[in-house]
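hey
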């Protein structure tokens, strides 16, 4: 693992495979150690998450070691677009959409392979300014996450300068918000706190064309729409988008977690800027083009800007990963009761808490 404090939880999760000697862990000790590992004679395939430069460096390392026949599969991120449909939106739909855009952008300081980088909106949408003003308000209201990832602030500032704006500086974790993006910024994933707007002529189909043709990468995208949108239009847009994961009225992070229910995650097969190969597909469906996740009406969508209590996350895990469905809440409450009982009865065994970063 990249982070040393994840060794113990990974060891617990992967224990059955470690005991079978089919999985082993090693700490990230730098480029030289990684290159030595990749070039080892026992390595028969390499899978990585990262950027195109990392993928290309691994390829060069393999070739230099005479392992030109070793394949690489990879997940390399994306200039992730969020397509905002036109039409008649209610005030609540606009507010929820703005909140969830910003919550997704600020998560992990913007350093996610599925972090929104550009909002694609119709120039003719009458509620465009109302929506973008709400996004601006939410950027100020929601707490900035630390832009911890190396180079995140610098990449944000470089993108701002390209768009003719002032940099925010190396001490700021704020999201740089550009209302009129330059196309140059759409050719590189910022992987940090940067969000831009692109206005296009036409409607949602034209927005899909723009995303397909101008936004580098094909990993995932999101479509936000009001309940008033014609269903057949939505079907046509989802079909048109050349992305490995298409999320409707929800952040594409839920496309990633849908792996636990049999979905796929990886670049669209027609492009390698976001990598190659997919993970998931538990049901071995042949020739998968994309996975689609749907979040329901925006008026009923969870507000991502309000972090729910831990018990809600536990219930979601039980329902989505363990498949307990309606019994998820009862299962969580029962386990919490046992946890409380352990605290009250000192002779009951406790498990060590893993996974938290060092203080």
């Amino acid at each position: 693992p990249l982070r040393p404090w994840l060794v113990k939880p990974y060891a617990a999760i992967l224990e059955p495979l470690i005991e079978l000697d089919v999985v082993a862990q090693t700490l990230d000790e730098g480029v030289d150690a990684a290159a030595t590992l990749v070039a080892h004679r026992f390595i028969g395939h390499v899978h990585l998450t990262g950027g195109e430069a990392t993928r290309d460096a691994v390829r060069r390392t393999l070739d230099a070691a005479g392992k030109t026949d070793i394949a690489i599969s990879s997940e390399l991120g994306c200039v992730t677009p969020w397509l905002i449909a036109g039409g008649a939106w209610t005030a609540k739909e606009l507010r929820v959409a703005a909140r969830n855009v910003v919550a997704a952008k600020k998560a992990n300081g913007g350093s996610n392979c599925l972090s929104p980088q550009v909002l694609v909106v119709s120039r003719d949408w009458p509620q465009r300014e109302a929506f973008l003003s709400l996004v601006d308000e939410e950027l100020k209201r929601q707490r900035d996450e630390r832009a911890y990832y190396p180079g995140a602030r610098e990449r944000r500032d470089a993108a701002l300068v390209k768009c003719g704006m002032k940099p925010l500086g190396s001490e700021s974790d704020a999201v740089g918000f550009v209302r009129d993006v330059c196309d140059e910024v759409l050719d590189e994933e910022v992987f940090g706190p940067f969000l831009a707007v692109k206005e296009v002529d036409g409607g949602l189909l034209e927005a899909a064309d723009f995303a397909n043709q101008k936004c580098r990468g094909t990993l995932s995208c999101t479509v936000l729409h009001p309940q008033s949108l014609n269903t057949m239009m939505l079907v046509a847009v989802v079909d048109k988008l050349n992305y490995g994961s298409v999320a409707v009225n929800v952040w594409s992070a839920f496309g990633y977690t849908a792996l636990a229910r049999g979905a796929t995650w990886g670049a669209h097969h027609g492009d390698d800027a976001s990598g190659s190969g997919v993970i998931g597909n538990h049901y071995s469906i042949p020739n998968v083009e994309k996975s689609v996740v749907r979040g329901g009406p925006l008026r009923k969508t969870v507000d991502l800007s309000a972090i729910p209590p831990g018990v809600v996350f536990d219930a979601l895990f039980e329902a989505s990963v363990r498949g307990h469905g309606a019994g998820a809440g009862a299962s969580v409450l029962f386990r919490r009761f046992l946890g409380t009982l352990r605290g009250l009865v000192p002779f009951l065994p406790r498990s060590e808490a893993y996974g938290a970063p060092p203080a």
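The CA atoms of residues 208 and 241 lie 6 Å apart. The first helix runs from residue 7 to 13.
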